[in-house]
Amino acid sequence: xxxxxxxxxxxxxxxxxxxxxxxxxxxxxxxxxxxxxxxxxxxxxxxxxxxxxxxxxxxxxxxxxxxxxxxxxxxxxxxxxxxxxxxxxxxxxxxxxxxxxxxxxxxxxxxxxxxxxxxxxxxxxxxxxxxxxxxxxxxxxxxxxxxxxxxxxxxxxxxxxxxxxxxxxxxxxxxxxxxxxxxxxxxxxxxxxxxxxxxxxxxxxxxxxxxxxxxxxxxxxxxxxxxxxxxxxxxxxxxxxxxxxxxxxxxxxxxxxxxxxxxxxxxxxxxxxxxxxxxxxxxxxxxxxxxxxxxxxxxxxxxxxxxxxxxxxxxxxxxxxxxxxxxxxxxxxxxxxxxxxxxxxxxxxxxxxxxxxxxxxxxxxxxxxxxxxxxxxxxxxxxxxxxxxxxxxxxxxxxxxxxxxxxxxxxxxxxxxxxxxxxxxxxxxxxxxxxxxxxxxxxxxxxxxx
Length: 450
What we know:
With 450 residues, the protein is an alpha/beta fold. It has a domain at 172-442: TIM Barrel (Alpha-Beta Barrel). Helices cover 22% and strands 21% of the residues. Strands 3-5-8-7-6-9-10-4 form an 8-stranded mixed sheet. Strands 11-12-13-14-15-16-17 form a 7-stranded parallel sheet. Strand 12 (229-232), helix 4 and strand 13 form a beta-alpha-beta unit. Helix 1 packs antiparallel against helix 2. The longest helix is centred in the middle third of the chain and has 18 residues, at 287-304. The chain is elongated. The two termini are 33 Å apart. The relative contact order is 0.15.
């Protein structure tokens, strides 16, 4: 299925980040996770971050607290193949590989991201990225990285005109930028590129007190003169039993959950992205359950729109998934007429132009309904994979100034840097993954031009 995994854990709650022998606890007090996952860390001896090297080099790393016989370790460069590292007992037990850098020419002198991957019993337990340069290359000045937000639209036909979206100062990217400020200023500046941009907040059954969580976020956003973007992700039978399965236990529980979300927003301004994949995946349900889901979505729109300041966009998949005619029929049954529009490309990588074409076609079947596009990771388009594909990049910065009358905004709905799931060396879905976040920035045009 061409979609992205999400998990009920680590959604702006508590996460562990492996950073050169430390465990960094990132906490946002307004969201309480359902559970936490233990994490190991990787210590790298060589190469060190930002070093310039050449010739044959010994890559050395270890997982503190584990005997080297208890785990495997690999290195990869720029998301390429995994390369085995042998156990070595010289000096101190560690993993080591001899690497010839003479053929590293595809990025010139760099930067190259070397990712160390530790695996135990077939499960990845830790990763750690190290950016290096070869043959005399050096890191660019962090001051060259620009991180300002784009202007907002003033078009009165755009429901989001005048909105400034909330930038969470306690986001994982912000915490990562602070952690790397002195140990690796270049990486820190790259993380600030992410931290300076507004991202959506995912809400689900990991929120123990949904109303209070939402109210706190709304208050924080208002104090900054901004409005939050929420993702409502609690539909019953969510993800059709996949990695992100869960959601409300029954229809009445979901109706109550939506009511709590609406209460938390109150009369304030906010954007709600309604139930990613719920319509695109609906055929996994029985006919009766499909009817129930459509009714739940329609009622959710009605409940949320009782506050005129709440702008609601129903998820409509992406350009390489559901035919526009089919999706239009589903949206009509889900009360799209009462919503502000629909959203495309949530958590996926399809190019902005492809999604605008798809959204325009779909909107044309819905009396030219407006839409928004998730551009969080589509800077280089899709390579056909949806689960942690390497070589991807952050896309258009969030803005309502899209230069398209039907496109209300480009938004970062998927949090750049959160894993899609345990694939391509990634941790569980929804877990912050520093090396992937770093790659999204390094692969983008943001470093040289914005």
